Amino acid sequence: MTKLQAFIIPVTPFQQNCSLVYDEVRKIGAIVDPGGDVPRILGAIKQSGIAIEKILLTHGHIDHAGGAAALKDALQVPIEGPHIEDTFLLEALPESGAKYGMMDARAVVPDRWLKEDDEVTVGDLRFSVYEAPGHTPGSVVFFNGDNRFALVGDVLFQGSVGRTDFPRGDHETLLRSIREKLFPLGDDVVFLPGHGSPGQIGEERLNNPFLNE
How far is CA 86 from CA 58, 60, 107, 168, in A? Predict the structure, then answer.
């Protein structure tokens, strides 16, 4: 089994969990959800010594994708994800960034749109892709079964769930995504959300107030 390692690089005024996920043996990794603060991300990459081979996006909101275009230029690597339904968000990143004082945000088009049952590789790590709409229509989740680890963006949080009061958000769709896509992964799975601390699927299934009706 290829061992996975990950660490968080907090970015943007929203303290979004941009993360560096990597193959521990080969020291090859991906940057997930570079929302902004690209110099900080580049500094963390340099300090880590990890070779970055791609950028992954869970969805198209400004705090997750606002720095993707600049980081792609700096690293010369492809962007994979999210689902094509988030095109409208990625196109509007400059306008979204301006609302929050993030003036460097640029529109971005991924090199590869993702859909259900796709697979993404990072070094020798393999991630299954699950569509998980609700927070945004094109949100995706990345799951590595060997390490029982999932990158969930803003779909699920420790003790909470993603907001659905943004354009094309839908609360019932979000809850269905969590129950039908995340819960079946297994109670032992550790997930890294877009904000806050990592959690465990089983704990949320039992105790998350939004999900244990």
Answer: 10, 6, 12, 10
Residue among 45, 40, 121, 119 nearest 76 (CA): 45
- Write down the residue that tokens 């400059």 correspond to: 94
Which residues are bridge partners to 191 per DSSP? 150, 199
Structure letter (DSSP) for residue 85: G
Nearest alpha carbon to residue 60 among 125, 137, 132, 4 = 137
Distance CA 27, CA 73 (A): 21
Phi-psi region of 119 (alpha: psi -120 to 50; beta: other; left: phi over 0): beta
Dihedral pair phi/psi, residue 144, rounded to 5°: -105, 105
CA-to-CA distance for 181 and 160, rounded, in angstroms? 16
CA 32 to chain centre: 5
Which residues are CB-contacts of 93 (< 8 A; sequence separation ≥ 6)?
60, 62, 65, 66, 69, 105, 106, 107, 108
Residues counted in the chain: 213
The structural domains of the chain, ordered by start, are: 4-207 (3.60.15.10)
The Cα–Cα gap between 155 and 22 comes to: 22
Query: For 124-133, how does the pLDDT look when each residue is reduced to its tens digit (9 = 90+)?
Result: 999 999 999 9
Torsion sign across C-alpha atoms 41, 44, 163, 184: positive
Q: Model confidence over 19-62: pLDDT tens digits?
A: 999 999 999 999 999 999 999 999 999 999 999 999 999 999 99
